[in-house]
Design brief:
The protein is about 80% helix and about 0% strand. It is mostly helical. It is globular.
Length: about 500
């Protein structure tokens, strides 16, 4: 098995195709639900804080399970893991589709998340072991095209379905496709895996779950609950302490659940930092643009989704192109050019006005997505390329976990910055208006106008801060070097022992 992994004669295209279809519907499902949340609130009679658990809970399950996928990939075959993931995802989809109370819908959503959490690291690991380093960029580019297409069509498709049908159709639409993919996997996937004598460390799993779960929940709750809420700072503190214990425990184990030794390889460590920083900046667009177009400009959710569509499509179709360019030129040139575009367009987004045109927003967002498409996949692939094959499951699990964490931190940071700026600006504008009005109370219309102007200032300031966050990634990109597989530390130590024994024998 190991030999086959290191020197594959021909990539298992059938296996990869089935995995990609499974990952695609899981990603599509993630992007479908956001626009339907208001409809779910009305139909199931729940408030905003409650309905947000459909996204927060999904993220938490991912954050808890993804670190464990490094163990699962080493322990079980691709067939076993894929079928288990698809059974969980399909069952959850059916439960959610027929839910008539919120608790049942949440259970279905979390079952979907448990299947989705396994699919992504599994697919990335198969891609790494199936293609040599010199062809890996193009392969990862196709992988990016499939996965970027889901968020490209998701919001628009969701808006159309919710506008014409019940929100449950979002799940009924996915259900037959999930069943078909499950059947394809059952009949097509035939890989076998030699049994590995490794056991799951339950203590590590507990500390990992509390650690990553606490950090994710704390940061994701900060935007709505505020940083002074004990739900926020206590969960973050408990999460950080648990993560510290988890990391120390992993370092002391011969077969760690999640091997933090991946960070001893400099290009992987650098890639992780760049993608985390860029993730935080990227969330400014995903979070702030919809707020601007719907709250300030009054654009409908359907039109807001259509506005984001060209950028998402550009990101999807650029993925295979950047993959081929990565194989030819490496990640550094692509990352620098892409980050210059990202930094510039993010800065221009900090100059939004009350009358910024729809066309201007579409073009600016599309160019920004073009820049990001030149960074994410090439930088991640370059980092993974430096890992010895034994570290692949740990590298893919670590990447996906850090993406979850950085996304939560970025969202919390930007929401806090926007809220604080909006509040302070609103107070200043209200004082000025009252002075100009001779100290008299302001009308509701005047207060509403002040509220919109303050919100605009908050959004612009958040984009301005995002510009500096993206600039950090740009500076780090100059240190990228084309990575080749490093020697496994265990193999190096074995060679050193052999050389020492030879020297002793010669003496």
């Amino acid at each position: 098995m190991e030999a086959a992994q290191k020197n594959p004669v021909k990539p298992p295209y059938g296996l990869i195709a089935v995995l990609m279809i499974g990952a695609f519907i899981a990603f599509l499902n993630n992007t479908l639900l956001n626009i339907a949340l208001p409809s779910i609130m009305t139909d199931l009679n729940v408030d905003t804080a409650t309905v947000q658990w459909l996204t927060t809970g999904f993220m938490l399950v991912n954050g808890i399970l993804i670190p464990a996928t490094a163990f699962l990939i080493r322990k079980y075959s691709v067939r076993t893991l894929f079928l288990a993931a698809m059974v969980l995802f399909t069952t959850g989809t059916f439960i959610a589709g027929f839910a008539d109370v919120f608790s049942i819908l949440l259970i279905g959503r979390m079952m979907q998340a448990s299947g989705s959490a396994i699919l992504m690291p599994l697919l990335m690991n198969v891609m790494l072991i199936s293609f040599p380093v010199e062809k890996r960029g193009a392969a990862m580019g196709i992988f990016g095209l499939i996965l970027m297409a889901a968020p490209a069509i998701g919001p628009t498709l969701s808006g159309w379905i919710v506008e014409h049908y019940d929100w449950r159709m979002l799940f009924h639409f996915i259900s037959p496709i999930a069943v078909l993919v499950l059947l394809l996997g059952f009949f097509w996937l035939k890989d076998k895996k030699e049994k590995q004598n490794i056991k799951l460390d339950i203590v590590s799993l507990i500390f990992s779950s509390i650690g990553f779960g606490g950090v994710l929940y704390g940061f994701s709750s900060a935007g709505s609950k505020g940083w002074d809420s004990p739900y926020v700072y206590l969960t973050i503190i408990i999460g950080v302490i648990s993560l510290f214990i988890f990391i120390i425990r992993q370092k002391r184990q011969t077969e760690p659940m999640l091997n933090f030794g991946v960070f001893q390889f400099p290009m992987f460590a650098l890639a992780s930092i760049i993608t985390m920083v860029l993730n935080m900046a990227m969330f400014s667009g995903m979070l702030l643009i919809p707020i601007y177009v719907q709250t300030i400009r009054g654009i409908s959710p359907m039109d807001a989704g259509l506005m984001m569509l060209p950028g998402a499509l550009v990101m999807a179709f650029m993925s295979p192109i950047t993959g081929k360019l990565f194989d030819k030129y490496g990640g550094r040139v692509l990352a620098i050019i892409g980050l210059i575009i990202t930094v510039s367009t993010t800065y221009f987004f900090s100059k939004l006005a009350m009358d910024t045109t729809y066309t201007h927003l579409v073009i600016l967002n599309t160019v920004r997505m073009l820049g990001m498409s030149m960074v994410m996949m090439p930088v991640s692939t370059n980092g993974l390329n430096q890992l010895p094959p034994r570290f692949y499951p740990h590298g893919t699990a670590m990447n996906n976990t850090l993406n979850q964490v950085s996304g939560a931190i970025g969202t919390a940071l930007l929401v806090t910055i926007m809220t604080n700026r909006t509040t302070s600006t609103g107070e200043e504008l209200a004082k000025e208006a009252m002075i100009n009005n001779g100290g008299a109370e302001l009308s509701e219309a005047a207060m509403a106008q002040i509220g919109m102007e303050a919100t605009l200032q908050g959004i612009n300031f958040s984009f301005f801060i995002s510009t500096f966050i993206a600039a950090i990634a740009l500076i780090l990109a100059f240190f990228i070097k084309r990575a080749a597989p490093a020697e496994d530390p265990i193999e190096v130590s074995k060679k050193e022992e052999v050389n020492k024994s030879k020297l002793v024998g010669n003496e």
